[in-house]
Design brief:
Layout (H helix, E strand, L loop, with lengths): L15 E3 L2 E3 L6 E2 L4 H6 L18 E3 L3 E2 L6 E2 L4 E2 L3 E2 L6 E5 L3 E5 L4 E3 L1
Antiparallel strand pairs: 1-2, 2-3, 4-7, 4-11, 5-6, 8-9, 9-10
InterPro entries: YjdM, YjdM_C, YjdM_N
Family: Belongs to the YjdM family.
Protein name: Alkylphosphonate utilization protein
Length: 113
């Protein structure tokens, strides 16, 4: 039996070594087995659409028109939102949008300013 761990992404047992990295032939995921403990601690990090790490109090800009559910209002591209709060859940940013009010946003639709 091999001592190579299963793929952390798809749990495939067919991972193999390629130099210093381990590679999964099923999903194509590559990882360094020595940095696995660091990857587990990075799971709670919230990043914007460009991969920048977000923190409480940051200012972000909306990158796409967002329809507000249950309303005819739209959050326009380029709207700046100041003083965000990061929360757990599907919508991981709580904020107040000027002209609209308090709402939750997904981090994939904002970029850090």
């Amino acid at each position: 039996m091999s001592d190579i761990p299963n793929c952390p992404t798809c749990d495939s047992e067919y991972a193999y070594e390629d130099g210093a990295l381990l590679v999964c032939p099923d999903c194509g995921h590559e990882w360094n087995p020595n940095e696995e403990s660091e990857a587990l601690s990075d799971e709670n990090v919230i990043k914007d659409a460009n991969g920048n790490v977000l923190q409480d109090g940051d200012t972000v800009s909306v990158i796409k028109d967002l329809k507000i559910k249950g309303s005819s209002q739209v959050v326009k591209v380029g709207t700046k939102v100041k003083g965000i709060r990061l929360v757990d859940g599907d919508h991981d940013i709580d904020c107040k949008i000027p002209g609209i009010g308090a709402m939750g946003l997904k981090s994939e639709f904002v970029k850090k300013v």
